[in-house]
Amino acid sequence: MSLKSKQNEDDFKFKQQQIETLKQLEDSGFIDIYFGDESHFGLTPNVPYAWQTMDNPILLPAAKGKFLNVVGLMSRKNDLFFEMHETTFNTDNFIQFMERFVEQTVKKTVVILDNSPIHKSKKFKAKMAEWKENDVLIYFLPPYSPELNLIEILWRRIKYQWLSFDAYLSFQNLKERLSYVLDNFGKEYDIIF
Questions:
Q1: Which of 2, 62, 167, 172 would bridge 177 by S-S if both were Cys, CB 3.0 to 4.6 A apart?
Q2: What is d(CA 68, CA 40) in angstroms, rounded to the nearest whole number?
């Protein structure tokens, strides 16, 4: 499903150009850029189209119940700062996550986020001035523009390519396989931007 019809085309193009300028500043070594978002992982597998024989079909159990939420900040250099939770992620969790991220930054950093309610809450916005004093700036994408948030590529790769089918056999398997992929992003798993 495309969100393009809901986009403000002028706003989209303006923000797209600004992000390109930020990338040039990063490539010149002046800043770091991180793309941030949350993603949900459960025992209902994300199965893309796959070739299979009639005699040996690919069958995966589907189960509702426990789930994992991952919050991440990813750079184009395949650096990933993340946390995994077995509970729903809220504004307070996200603020605490950002506090830990800000503590480990070493240069002026721009964090690019979508318009999720936890990113746009009064509590979150109240912290932005403090983070700015620590050279971490928050940059919001235009509404309905997931294609501008590069971390969306990471979530798709994990769900559709990097998690093996056996990850969905149990919640423990999912947790172990997902942890392995996240811990090894930038080493064994990478994305060329």
A1: 167
A2: 6
